[in-house]
Amino acid sequence: MRVLGLIVSVLTVLLLIAAAGFIAFVAALPQAETLPATRAQGIVVLTGGPDRIAEGLSLLSSGYGERVLITGVNEKTSRDDLARSHGIDARAAACCIDLDWQALNTRGNAQEAARWARSNGYTDLILVTSSWHMPRATEEMRRAMPEARIIPHAVVPPRAEWPKWWRDLNMMRLLSTEYAKYCWSRLRGFASRAASALHRA
Question: How far is the first Cα of the chain from the last one, in angstroms, to the nearest whole number?
Answer without folding.
Answer: 44
